[in-house]
Amino acid sequence: MKTAVPLHQQTTESGGLWAAHARPWAERFLIYGFLLVFAIITGAPFFYMISGSFKFNAEIFSYPLTFIPRAPTLDNYGRLLSGSEIPYVRQFGNSVIVAVSQTLLTLLISSLVGWGFAKFEFSGKRALFLFLLATLMFPYQVTLVPLFLLMLRLGWLDTYLAIVIPGAISAFGVFFMRQNMLAIPDELIDAARMDGASDWGIYWRIGLPLARGALSVLAVLVFLGSWNDYLWPLIVLRSADKFTYPVGLATLVGLYRVEYGMILSGAFLATLPVVAIFVAGRKYLLENIAIGAIKG
Asked: Tag placement on the chain: N or C end, fewer CB within 10 Å?
């Protein structure tokens, strides 16, 4: 025989059930709402950069601001790519050469040194590694003057060697690779040595393949740093034909006139390779970051 439930108790139970179901939706709404606002705030300047590249200078500074060009024009792109103001296409290619070269060389050096610190024992290893970490505490600007004098003595000014070689020596890269390579089992190395593999063969066939996740993350970080670097190329490069794209775009800032439309056009074109890298390799990068988090 069923017992009658008072009406106020039924109302209370139904209200509690509704609150239990509504709470996850409310939390989800707040989270997605916050993320949407954050995405709009973050993406608005980027969208304005794109729209501004299709505007004349007068419209860029018109009030109120407009995200959609009133009279869209390709004049900024035409002048930029024609080379009438600056050799942007050549400077863009220079950035590609410098960034790719520095990334590959950094990966080689950082992985080699990191492998040595992770898997070899030698006298003074701990002190040398602590000294390497200590260099991370010095601001980059402190090294500009002595590094410039060194490039001057070597005769590397106005060459890409002055950018690629110093940039390829990365204390952070060595530390990053060393920490990742410590997780490689020593049993695999011992088994490879028993099979007659050389130290170089072990590094090339075991160390690098098992550290490809860390290599991919480091490659993206180094490439972005080199691709967007402005200060050091500005110091060591002298010829406009050898400028990288950030230095080339800076020359569009004159004493009496600033070509904002062309600067925005060049900045937008320069973001395309970076976006393409993230779109093409996002799945691989996220997988390796997740694997690293699980290992940690």
From this structure: N
